[in-house]
Design a protein that fits this description.
Elements: H1 2-15, H2 20-34, H3 40-51, H4 58-71, H5 74-86, H6 93-108, H7 111-128, H8 133-143, H9 154-163, H10 167-173, H11 175-196, H12 206-232, H13 237-255, H14 261-294, H15 297-308, H16 312-329, H17 332-349, H18 354-368, H19 376-385, H20 389-412, H21 415-423
Helix pairs in contact: 1-2, 2-14, 3-14, 4-13, 4-14, 5-6, 5-12, 6-7, 6-8, 6-11, 6-12, 7-8, 7-19, 8-19, 8-20, 9-17, 9-18, 10-21, 11-20, 12-13, 14-17, 15-17, 16-18, 17-18, 18-20
């Protein structure tokens, strides 16, 4: 009964609009007071321990790298490269939109960075080419979900920290699912192209193709440097994030010469603000996690569910539905930090691979950022395209259905996530 009360207190604080980190700390302090007194020294120590990990250093570094790429003209070059590669297919710029998101995913690590960075370029280009605004906005929003699946991925870094799982293995596990998602989205583009007679780009000449490769080569090397280094063991995912920042600076300052001191200052300020909010959230979630463990909440939930659920497939179905609903209301990192202390014991008890489950969790929450009522990418893309939210939601419905199909494939077939890490010799 007491456990239920504390969880209800947390929900009430969320509904009152209290910031997630403060709601977690407030609930934790109440739980400590009810169980024998508050030791503020212990509170601070646990929160510091939550962020005092080498892995979490990757969060501000990947954020910084993505923002540097956005501010240095790299996104324009990536879009032009993608246009020459697939723009001649039926549906033209729709395929370009998806391929550009796949490539940019290897640099930014977040769906919002993709939608806001590439989205402005993509939507304008598609409208100028004769695509209707609804389709342009929907494909932009849908393709951005690939960002946190294909490495690097901020949500996977946070999940790996909370679940005690190798971030390198999670990164490698996201590659094939990301490609599967992109291919399914391209099938939708083909369908729209034949139905609405959308235009396509003309097939590039050899000279144009070589020019696109030349312009896109250096940006394309960013994910290659990242993945090859992690695979060969030359550096950890955290160290790779630092290398990616250094590489982004070289491109922006010395190669393209578009990263001015004013832009750099703005990027640094935005990175510090975003990183601080994520760090505070992880610290608060660590305190909350230790409190709910002491209150036996995960153990109680585990006992109830294991008594009611007979197989891991039923559990995965329940968790998928639950995470989809959570993703509609809660920001991705917040959801991961709050829920993983409760969910990890459950999936471990049913012998579900934690690396596969990490991909399932993040992809569920990515579908959530497209969904009403509070999907962040939904609102960002609607604002860029200047579309009413109701119209944007209607345009997204076919894409959400395809993403659900991709989620089912990732859930039912573990090898979609685990094949590649195992192929390169990783223990997952």
């Amino acid at each position: 009964m007491t456990q239920t009360i504390f969880l209800l207190v947390l929900v009430v604080l969320f509904l009152l609009g209290i910031p997630v980190a403060f709601a977690l700390v407030g609930t934790s302090v109440l739980m400590m007071a009810a169980s024998g007194g508050i030791r503020f020294g212990s509170v601070i120590q646990q929160m510091i321990n939550g962020v005092n990990t080498f892995t979490l250093l990757a969060v501000p570094l990947f954020l910084l790298a993505g923002k540097l790429m956005n501010s240095s003209g790299t996104t324009d070059r990536l879009f032009d490269f993608a246009k020459k590669m697939v723009g001649w297919l039926p549906g033209g710029l729709g395929h370009v939109n998806i391929l550009a998101s796949v490539i940019f995913a290897g640099m930014s690590g977040t769906a919002v960075s993709d939608a806001s960075g590439l989205g402005v370029i993509e939507i304008k280009a598609m409208e100028d080419a004769g695509f209707d605004k609804d389709f342009s906005a929907a494909v932009t929003a849908s393709s951005s979900t690939v960002g946190p699946i294909i490495p690097p991925s901020l949500p996977l870094v946070v999940y790996g920290t909370m679940a005690g799982t190798s971030v390198g293995a999670l990164f490698m596990a996201g590659i094939v699912p990301g490609i599967v998602i992109a291919l399914l989205e391209m099938l939708v583009v083909f369908g729209y192209a034949f139905k609405k007679k959308y235009p396509r780009e003309r097939f590039p000449t050899g000279k144009e193709f070589l020019h696109a490769v030349k312009e896109g080569f250096l940006p394309l090397m960013a994910p290659v440097i990242l993945l090859v280094g992690i695979y060969t063991g030359l550096y950890t995912p955290t160290e790779s994030a630092a290398i990616l920042v250094f590489y982004s600076l070289i491109l922006g300052v010395f190669v393209y010469r578009e990263l001015t001191l004013q832009k750099l200052y703005q990027v640094l300020v935005e990175t510090v603000i975003d990183s601080a909010s994520i760090g505070l959230l992880v610290a608060a979630a660590t305190l909350f996690g230790s409190c709910i463990v002491r209150a036996l909440i995960p153990q109680t939930i585990l006992r109830v569910i294991t008594a009611a659920v007979s197989s891991k497939w039923m559990l995965l179905l329940i968790l998928n539905v639950f995470l989809l609903v959570v993703g509609m209301f809660m920001e991705t990192v917040s959801a991961i930090t709050i829920l993983m202390p409760i969910m990890i014991p459950l999936v471990t008890a049913f012998d579900i691979n934690l690396v596969q489950f990490g991909i399932i969790v993040v992809f569920n929450l990515m579908i959530g950022v497209l969904s009403p009522p509070f999907g962040l990418v939904l609102f960002v893309t609607a604002r860029i395209a200047e579309l009413p939210i109701a119209r944007m939601i209607k345009a997204l419905l076919p894409w959400l259905a395809v993403l659900i199909v991709a989620l089912a494939l990732i859930t039912v077939f573990p090898e979609v996530s685990l094949w590649f890490p195992r192929l390169i010799g990783m223990k997952v």
